[in-house]
Design brief:
Blueprint lengths: L2 H6 L10 H7 L12 E2 L2 H9 L8 E5 L5 H8 L4 E6 L5 H10 L4 E5 L7 H5 L6 E6 L5 H9 L10 E7 H8 L9 H9 E9 L4 E2 L6 E8 L9 H13 L5 H4 L7 H8 L12 H13 L1 H4 L1
Parallel strand pairs: 2-3, 2-5, 3-4, 5-6
Antiparallel strand pairs: 1-8, 6-9, 7-9
Helix pairs in contact: 3-4, 7-9, 9-13, 10-13, 12-13
This protein binds S-adenosylmethionine (SAM).
S-adenosylmethionine binds next to strand 1, helix 4 and strand 3.
Length: 297
């Protein structure tokens, strides 16, 4: 019997009850306000876990374990430790069962992932760490930009493997001259190499969300170039894409009174629009900006 046969017949390869039974035993009806769309198929959560690469010898950080589908997959695939942050205290009993099955390997912190001090929850010697999560969509981009803003860089994580709404995943990996290309593409691609590794249909979730989803892998660049600050890049991209149909010499007036000087110093023509610039162009512009009197202020 293969492991997937066993799952179909009801038992799971980790010997724990199937997720559907756990959800009904603990009364875990999905809460919309917490972005709860659970994945009950352990074959799928194991595929997501495997997208994080080798898990032996690694700590996996998970946001929102819920009833524990992805958590179980990470442990089944060999993670040395899983550190999970969850807002919903109702799932405590379900996660306790996993802790008992894998003694000493699962640390759960109840709280808001947006307020979490990651190095603090990981402790002094976390070893190589990856972030793997089926994110709550309401806060997914905020969590992502928080991780992308990490200082110092290279960050405390080796890789991130994150589920987003498909439309957000497409914005993250978008290239210049496309409608999807925007702030998120630039912020993500300056510091990491993002790539869609898996498309996930609506029906894979319980309850099914309104939109399709996709898993994105982010591999951090060791030295993002040019070496601007994330703050300057955030300000420049906000101004440029805030009025994306305008030429840069006009849209960047949000940032500085006379954008021409900035654009000249960065070697960028003022009649271009935000979507014409590459990620490196934006980082060069941000570097010139942060050295200017307004940017320094
Ligand atoms: N990992 C589970 C799975 O794949 O089936 C559940 C994923 S569900 C899309 C998102 C989870 O994030 C829910 O369990 C929800 O309670 C939790 N959550 C929502 N907002 C959160 C926050 N700000 N901090 C931590 N967890 C949060």
């Amino acid at each position: 019997m293969t492991s997937s046969d066993r799952e179909v017949s009801g038992a799971s390869p980790d010997g724990l009850p199937p997720l559907r039974d756990i959800i009904s035993a603990f009364g875990l009806e999905a809460k919309k306000s917490l972005g709860q769309n659970f994945i009950l198929d352990l074959n799928l959560t194991r595929r997501i876990a495997r997208a994080a690469g080798k898990l032996e010898g690694r700590t996996a950080v998970e946001v929102g374990p819920g009833p524990g589908g992805l958590t179980r997959a990470l442990l089944l695939e060999g993670a040395t430790r899983v550190v999970a942050v969850e807002r919903d205290e109702r799932v405590r009993g379900a996660l306790d069962m996993i802790s008992q099955r894998y003694p000493g390997k699962l640390d759960v912190h109840f709280g808001d992932a947006l307020q979490t001090d990651w190095p603090k929850v990981l402790g002094p010697t976390p070893g190589p760490t990856v972030i793997v999560a089926n994110l709550p969509y309401g806060v997914a981009t905020l969590l992502l930009t928080g991780w992308l803003d990490t200082e110092p860089w290279p960050p405390w994580f080796e890789r991130m493997v994150l589920m987003f709404q498909k439309e957000v995943a497409e914005r993250i990996v978008a290239v210049p001259h496309t409608k999807a290309y925007g702030r998120l593409s630039v912020l993500a691609q300056w510091r990491t190499a993002p790539r869609i590794v898996l498309n996930v249909p609506r029906e894979a979730f319980t309850p099914a969300p309104k939109v399709e989803s996709a898993v994105v892998e982010f591999v951090p660049h060791k030295e993002p170039t040019p070496p601007c600050t994330p703050r300057a890049l955030a300000r420049v991209t906000a101004a440029a894409f805030g009025q994306r149909r305008k030429m840069l010499r006009s849209s960047l007036k949000q940032l500085v009174a006379e954008p021409e000087g900035l654009l000249d110093a960065a070697g960028i023509a003022g009649n271009l629009r935000a979507e014409d610039l590459s990620v490196k162009d934006f980082a060069r512009l941000a570097l010139v900006f942060e050295r200017s009197p307004v940017g320094r202020g």
